[in-house]
């Protein structure tokens, strides 16, 4: 089984993915870390030096590689992964893949991301909280139709990690 955690930036995919993998005695893979390892540079440098399109193509390639070769793994993907190319179709078509959308409200995400922008190239140019809110609100409007196709949806606002893991299990 491959369990894929999807959701917007800062929805806790990596932290929860690690905890879930431990509980299930599965391996944990974070797609951004995998890309950084394969490409030999941080995501923000890939965006800066090679551009977003290069990153999106690499993201699709590595997602497919992992789905084709791994098993008994929890995979957390980037916030944009389900929303480009046919990535969400691939995630839904493979029978041993189950996807979970960790759904957070706009205010929850703004709250979390206002102090976590620096590693995230798509947000680093935003200066005020209002700008961040406007950007994330529009982004969620565009991306939610992809996220909403996941097999399962878990609302994460005001829940502890323990509660979310229990629901995932
Ligand atoms: C992105 C999310 C990031 C990373 C890249 C692009 C996005 O991952 O893949 O900066 O398009 O939402 P996280 O969701 O882990 O921050």
TrEMBL record:
<keyword id="KW-0418">Kinase</keyword>
<keyword id="KW-0057">Aromatic amino acid biosynthesis</keyword>
<comment type="similarity">
    <text>Belongs to the shikimate kinase family.</text>
</comment>
<dbReference type="InterPro" id="IPR031322">
    <property type="entry name" value="Shikimate/glucono_kinase"/>
</dbReference>
<dbReference type="GO" id="GO:0005524">
    <property type="term" value="F:ATP binding"/>
</dbReference>
<dbReference type="Pfam" id="PF01202">
    <property type="entry name" value="SKI"/>
</dbReference>
<comment type="pathway">
    <text>Metabolic intermediate biosynthesis; chorismate biosynthesis; chorismate from D-erythrose 4-phosphate and phosphoenolpyruvate: step 5/7.</text>
</comment>
<dbReference type="GO" id="GO:0005829">
    <property type="term" value="C:cytosol"/>
</dbReference>
<feature type="binding site">
    <location>
        <position position="120"/>
    </location>
    <ligand>
        <name>ATP</name>
    </ligand>
</feature>
<keyword id="KW-0479">Metal-binding</keyword>
<keyword id="KW-0028">Amino-acid biosynthesis</keyword>
<keyword id="KW-0547">Nucleotide-binding</keyword>
<feature type="binding site">
    <location>
        <position position="56"/>
    </location>
    <ligand>
        <name>substrate</name>
    </ligand>
</feature>
<feature type="binding site">
    <location>
        <position position="79"/>
    </location>
    <ligand>
        <name>substrate</name>
    </ligand>
</feature>
<feature type="binding site">
    <location>
        <begin position="10"/>
        <end position="15"/>
    </location>
    <ligand>
        <name>ATP</name>
    </ligand>
</feature>
<comment type="subunit">
    <text>Monomer.</text>
</comment>
<keyword id="KW-0963">Cytoplasm</keyword>
<feature type="binding site">
    <location>
        <position position="14"/>
    </location>
    <ligand>
        <name>Mg(2+)</name>
    </ligand>
</feature>
<feature type="binding site">
    <location>
        <position position="32"/>
    </location>
    <ligand>
        <name>substrate</name>
    </ligand>
</feature>
<dbReference type="GO" id="GO:0000287">
    <property type="term" value="F:magnesium ion binding"/>
</dbReference>
<dbReference type="GO" id="GO:0009423">
    <property type="term" value="P:chorismate biosynthetic process"/>
</dbReference>
<comment type="function">
    <text>Catalyzes the specific phosphorylation of the 3-hydroxyl group of shikimic acid using ATP as a cosubstrate.</text>
</comment>
<feature type="binding site">
    <location>
        <position position="143"/>
    </location>
    <ligand>
        <name>substrate</name>
    </ligand>
</feature>
<dbReference type="GO" id="GO:0009073">
    <property type="term" value="P:aromatic amino acid family biosynthetic process"/>
</dbReference>
<keyword id="KW-0460">Magnesium</keyword>
<dbReference type="GO" id="GO:0004765">
    <property type="term" value="F:shikimate kinase activity"/>
</dbReference>
<protein>
    <recommendedName>
        <fullName>Shikimate kinase</fullName>
        <ecNumber>2.7.1.71</ecNumber>
    </recommendedName>
</protein>
<keyword id="KW-0067">ATP-binding</keyword>
<keyword id="KW-0808">Transferase</keyword>
<dbReference type="InterPro" id="IPR027417">
    <property type="entry name" value="P-loop_NTPase"/>
</dbReference>
<dbReference type="InterPro" id="IPR000623">
    <property type="entry name" value="Shikimate_kinase/TSH1"/>
</dbReference>
<dbReference type="GO" id="GO:0008652">
    <property type="term" value="P:amino acid biosynthetic process"/>
</dbReference>
């Amino acid at each position: 089984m491959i369990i894929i955690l999807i959701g917007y930036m800062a929805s806790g995919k990596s932290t929860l993915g690690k905890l879930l993998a431990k509980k299930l005695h599965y391996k944990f893979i974070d797609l951004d870390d995998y890309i950084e390892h394969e490409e030999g540079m941080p995501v923000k440098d890939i965006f800066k030096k090679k551009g977003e399109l290069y990153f999106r193509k690499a993201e699709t390639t590595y997602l497919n590689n992992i789905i084709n070769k791994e098993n008994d793994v929890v995979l957390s993907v980037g916030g944009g992964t389900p929303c480009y190319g046919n990535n969400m179709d691939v995630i839904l078509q493979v029978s041993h893949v189950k996807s979970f959308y960790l759904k957070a409200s706009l205010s929850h995400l703004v709250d979390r991301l206002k102090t976590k922008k620096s590693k995230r190239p798509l947000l680093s140019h935003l200066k005020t909280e209002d700008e961040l809110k406007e950007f994330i609100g529009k982004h969620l409007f565009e991306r939610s139709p992809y996220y909403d196709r996941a097999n399962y949806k878990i609302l994460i606002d005001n829940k502890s990690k323990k509660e979310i893991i229990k629901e995932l299990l």
